[in-house]
Specification:
280 residues; mainly alpha
Length: 280
């Protein structure tokens, strides 16, 4: 009887055990593409975290901004940890160390209360970290093959520009409407629009990436319209809220563009590998 029960239990276990996963025929995202994505997230967060800190300090959807700031800080930590192998590579060691050094200082300042002095410090570190993460991203992108790495890096940089534009707008809302600040805003808008045209015109685009770019272009239209309201001189209270909301929406669609370019890079390698196998 015990023997029968044991055999029955064994049969049930085998019947309910999950089947071994079949080998996937889907292309995987190349490791270098994942690294470019992580580096791009660092660059975008350098501006987004400062934007969220300003947003909370100015009382613009403050509760939401505070939660997003905490999550963004954790996302920066995760992306930096993902890129840890670059801390020992000769071509990226110094850039990675500089990003780490600035981040340790930046995250401390982001925990300070909003005031004029801290605003200047946050802005200074945000710009320094933007440049440092940009250098790291460029070095990592240079290791990618073909045009997919370039498009991926450009799309991730667009995310940084959108967040930078929102940050500059909030600085203007806080009272800094100097000619230099307004010039910075105009330059960021023009640079974003120029790069969007470059991405749209790229011959490496796939139908999927073009669809993602079309969604990004629609969000950019709403975001740019909210930014441009500042020049009209009417002080509608809802305007900063529109910018805050639109800047988060556009980061979502630009993330999707970047992810699609990363998948496209995997597709290119997958097709190349399959073709090689067939020839062999």
């Amino acid at each position: 009887m015990k023997m029968m029960l044991c055999l029955l239990a064994l049969a049930l276990t085998m019947a309910t055990a999950p089947a071994a996963a079949a080998p996937s025929n889907e292309p995987a995202m190349p490791a270098i593409a994942q690294d470019i994505v992580s580096a791009g997230k660092l660059r975008a967060q350098s501006q987004r975290l400062a934007k969220l800190w300003l947003q909370a300090g100015l009382g613009i959807q403050a509760g939401t901004a505070t939660g997003q700031l905490a999550r963004g800080t954790a996302q920066f930590d995760a992306a930096l940890a993902h890129l840890k192998p670059y801390a020992t590579q000769p071509t990226t060691r110094r850039d990675y160390a500089r990003v780490t050094e600035l981040w340790l200082e930046y995250r401390i300042v982001l925990a300070l209360p909003y005031n004029d002095s801290n605003t200047q410090t946050v802005s200074y570190l945000a710009d320094d970290l933007m440049l440092a993460t940009g250098r790291l991203a460029t070095r990592i992108e240079s290791e990618a093959e073909g045009g997919s790495g370039r498009l991926l890096d450009l799309s991730m940089r667009q995310n940084m520009l959108a967040q930078r534009l929102a940050r500059l707008y909030l600085l203007a809302q806080a009272g800094d409407r100097s000619s230099g600040r307004l010039v910075d805003i105009d330059q960021a808008r023009k640079e974003f629009a120029t790069t969007m045209r470059e991405l749209n015109d790229a011959h490496e685009n796939t139908p999927a990436s073009r669809e993602a770019l079309n969604l990004a272009a629609m969000q950019w239209m709403f975001f740019d319209r909210a930014i441009s309201e500042m020049k009209k001189g009417n002080a509608a209270d809802s305007r900063p809220q529109h910018v805050a909301t639109a800047s988060e929406r556009i980061t979502e669609v630009l993330d999707a563009v970047g992810q699609q370019y990363a998948l496209d890079a995997g597709n290119l390698r997958f097709v190349a590998a399959t073709t090689s196998m067939r020839r062999n």
